[in-house]
């Protein structure tokens, strides 16, 4: 089944700001920031394919277009770590030394 069946009131991607202007801005940002920010923090080099809003914009167009609120992510990080963080508020993963990235993790106290 399609997403429209489950979310009939959801606007199209263009209506939510992800039209031609976004595609051009996204391409430029990925050219300048080609690596996944989450993997870089952990000491790995992985190509990014998604420009993510660090703070979810929730329709706020000023926040949507604020490039300081953008980060490049690979699909895996965007679809797993980032979604989990938005829902739970807990940062998952470790750096190359095995130290948890979440500052509130008990190993970091």
TrEMBL record:
GO CC field: cytosol
Residue span(s) of domain HNH nuclease: 24-79
GO molecular function, one term: zinc ion binding
InterPro entries: HNH, HNH_nuc
UniProt KW Transmembrane helix keyword: no
Keywords in alphabetical order: Endonuclease, Hydrolase, Nuclease
Keyword Endoplasmic reticulum applies: no
Family, similarity comment: Belongs to the HNH nuclease family.
Protein name: Putative HNH nuclease YajD
